[in-house]
Amino acid sequence: MRYIDEMMARCGRNRIRGVPMRTKLASRSRGGFTLVELIVVMGVMAIAVGVLLPAVHRARSRSAEVFCQSNLRTLSTALMQYTMDNEDRYPIGFTFAKFHPSTGRPTDGGASGYITWFSLIDEHLTSGAGPAIPLDAISGFFDGATNRNFHAAFKCPSVSSNFQQKIHYYQHPVVMPHLTAELPSTFRGIQPAIKPAKVNQLYPHNALLWDTPLFAAASPYTPSMFWFSGGTDTVSGFALPVSRIDGSQLNAPNVPELRFRGPGGDRFINSTDALLNPAGPIVWASDAYLQQIGSFSPTWNTDSSGGTVITLTVGGPRFRHTGNGCNVLFADGSVRTLYLHPSRKVADGPVGTGSANYIDSDFRRFMLMIKWPPGATDSNTVPTNG
Q: Alpha carbon of 10 to those of 16, 98, 367: distances in Å?
């Protein structure tokens, strides 16, 4: 018994001595980082974040650009369906549901609403959508306000939530004309486009839809910036002129050769003025030039990024994507990104005579000039030097 008691006591002492030994080893293994180690780790993390954030931003921007291109392809399919149902004609750009043919004003004060290219093709995208847009809201800035919602494909994902317009794209206004602007006296005697163009009147490289500038002052009820009120009729408003696309002659063409490629070829092909030659760019005034002439209004187009130009033209392309890119849908169904080049300047007028106040882009004039329409009067205008 004495032997057993001694053994038990010895084992007990061993167990007691073992506890503090394990505890001591454990306490050594839980030692924390030193200050230097923490600084090094934080520095590595900061460098990693600095490297990864731009990459993440580029990936998001590229994703939005691809999403926008997908939108345009969806709209292209809807346009194709519309033309097949309407004798191969494209939709109207803008008209009142009921209007007087000599003035373009609505005969019912606008009570029946208005019709646009996006409301017409929305019928092929949204179940139950009709062609007419009701005037059932107040925008606070522009007329044409409506509570109607449109298919999600009309909104570019790159657009900031600050811009609340419902439609983020603009249409080719020669192919899909604003009928209220196509009155006989609108363009100094030029033959008006009474109907939208037919599919066979376009070249494969003709632009149909593109990213367009948005306006910070627009309300959530504003569909598109095609509408301004004027004169005594502040309710019905009127659509902007056809081809209001830049500061050149396309803004208000005085001869049909500025809209169409002549029956015998491009009349302006030999022009030395880049703003007239079909190979010349659709241009925008530089920021410096707009400030110089006192027309710089950034709040009108704060849908911009970085050092890109402030475009004051309604319906012009908006270079809102990566690298100053603008997504464009063409008549052949392709979608391409055209770029603005702020470092390249274009002169207004014949070579050597104008000041380089404008900015170059990949968006060329021939992309808007469609085939000579049947019945158009040929003025035989053949400028060679401006």
A: 10, 110, 100
Tokens of 24: 């001591």
Q: Which two tokens stand for residue 178?
A: 């604003």
Alpha-carbon separation of residue 166 from 39, 72, 134 (angstroms): 50, 15, 14
Tokens found for residue 25: 């080893």
DSSP secondary structure of 113-162: -EEEHHHHHHTTTSTT--SEE------SSSS--------GGGS-TTS-TT
Cα 311 to Cα 284: distance, rounded to the nearest angstrom: 7
pLDDT digits (tens, 9 = 90+) for 208-232: 999 988 877 778 898 987 665 544 3
312/333 Cα distance (integer angstroms)? 29
Q: What is the pLDDT of residues 239-259, one digit of tens each?
A: 554 445 555 556 566 777 888
**Cα–Cα distance for residue pair 205/45, rounded to 1 Å:** 49
Pick the closest to residue 146 from 234, 227, 232 (CA basis): 227
Which tens digits make up the pLDDT trace of 46-86?
887 776 666 555 667 778 899 999 999 999 999 999 999 99
pLDDT digits (tens, 9 = 90+) for 158-200: 888 878 889 999 999 889 988 877 766 555 556 677 789 999 9
* 198 Ramachandran zone, left/alpha/beta (phi>0; psi -120 to 50): beta
Q: In which element (H, E) is residue 92 found? A: none
3-state SS, 190-252, equals CCCCCCCCEHHHCCCCCEEEEECCCCCCCCCCCCCCCEEEECCEEEEEEECCCCCCCCCHHHC
Using CA atoms, how far apart are residues 324 and 158, in angstroms rounded to an integer?
Answer: 12
